[in-house]
Write a structure and sequence with these properties.
35% of the residues lie in helices and 30% in strands. Strands 1, 2, 3, 4, 5, 6, 8 and 12 form an eight-stranded mixed beta sheet that branches. Belongs to the GHMP kinase family. IspE subfamily. It catalyses: 4-CDP-2-C-methyl-D-erythritol + ATP = 4-CDP-2-C-methyl-D-erythritol 2-phosphate + ADP + H(+). This is 4-diphosphocytidyl-2-C-methyl-D-erythritol kinase.
Length: 300
């Protein structure tokens, strides 16, 4: 086998509850991930060393050195296998970079699946999940897909039943937001307000809405504890969220650490109309309609 291609989805967080700052610098989370139909493709080709090239949207914003998470994933897989392997990784980007939709994590998950196949390792899914958890909090979900709740740093996953398809519109912002910067701003805002930060808890009503496929209830219960920090860093996102609500979105939220804004629609037709309204009025310069849940990293 000379090459392998894997398709891997973006995610939106329908609940992101952030606990108090821990001594190790992390936070305990309740993070409800939902995989949506915006996909990167990762191709792994036979090579003597591990390299990466990036094409498509935002490719100029993706590092191609050792800091690239897909390279790190391939090297971690080779180390786990106890051998030296090579692969040229070719990433076709469609997921926004630093957009709060786990684009880098998706590429890492794609690299794990592609290289596991290319190198003939035959490692079980559980081994790939373990390696993924060491790479980053969002990488395991990019492997898993569907809808799941993450606890701990977000990497301890439990699948959640979803009773239908949900339709989304994503308003893509110019430039990205560093996840670390947004968490630091969240901590700063809480300290300034002398806030008593509760332990994160899963929203039972949101779980019921997911399970029954009730888009109206889900829209009413979307939540993100990082949203205030993201809006403080990027105030121009607030009018975008307001515009989505005015145009009939069932719910409007910053996706993860931002700056992508996510809007829940009634159905596919409403999602298309909402996307057109946001761009026609200038509330967003680029929108993408998508649906979820979808499968995680998948061979194509």
């Amino acid at each position: 086998m000379s090459s392998v291609t894997v398709r891997v989805p973006a995610k939106v967080n329908v609940q992101l509850s952030v606990g108090p700052l821990r001594e190790d610098g992390y936070h305990d989370l309740v993070n409800v991930f939902h995989a949506v139909s915006i996909f990167d493709e990762v191709m792994a080709k036979e090579s003597e060393s591990i390299t990466v090239a990036v094409h498509g949207k935002w490719s100029d914003q993706v590092p191609v050195d050792d800091s690239n998470l897909a390279i790190r994933a391939a090297r971690a897989l080779a180390k786990h296998a106890g051998r030296t392997y090579g692969a040229d990784l070719i990433i076709q980007k469609a997921i926004p970079v630093a957009g709060g939709m786990a684009g880098g994590s998706a590429d890492a998950a794609g690299a794990l699946v592609a290289c596991n196949e290319l190198w003939g390792l035959g490692l079980p899914f559980e081994d790939l999940m373990e390696i993924a958890g060491d790479l980053g909090s969002d990488v395991p979900f990019s492997l898993l897909g569907g809808t799941a709740v993450g606890t701990g740093r977000g990497e301890q996953l439990s699948e959640l039943p979803t009773g239908g398809t949900f339709h989304w519109v994503f308003a893509l912002a110019n430039g990205g937001l560093s996840t670390a910067t947004v968490y630091a701003e969240c901590d700063r805002l809480r300290e300034a307000a002398a806030a008593d930060v509760p332990w994160p808890q899963l929203d039972d009503t949101l779980m019921e809405a997911l399970g029954t496929g009730d888009a109206y209830s889900l829209g009413a219960h979307l939540s993100n504890d990082l949203q205030a920090a993201a809006l403080n860093l990027r105030p121009e996102l607030a009018p975008t969220l307001d515009a989505g609500r005015q145009h009939g979105a069932l719910g409007a939220i910053v996706s993860g650490s931002g700056p992508t804004c996510a809007f829940l629609a009634i159905d596919a037709t409403h999602a298309r109309d909402l996307a057109q309204s946001l761009t026609a009025t200038g509330a967003a310069h680029t929108t993408v309609a998508a649906h979820g849940p979808v499968h995680g990293a998948t061979l194509v």
